[in-house]
Amino acid sequence: MNFLTNLFKNKKPSSVRPLAQLEFLEVDMHNHLLPGIDDGSTSVKNSIAYIQELQRLGLKKFICTPHIMAGVHPNNKSTIEEAQTALVQGLKENGNGADIFAAAEHMIDDGLTSLIQQDELCVMPGGYVLIEMSYLSESKALFHIILDIQKLGYKPILAHPERYNYYHGNFNIYKQIKDAGCLLQLNLLSLSRYYGVDSKAIAMTLLKSGMYDFVGTDLHHERHLEALKNIAEKYPVRDMLKTSPILNQTLLDHLDSNKSQGIAG
Question: Which segments does the entry list as coiled coil (predicted)?
Answer without folding.
Answer: none
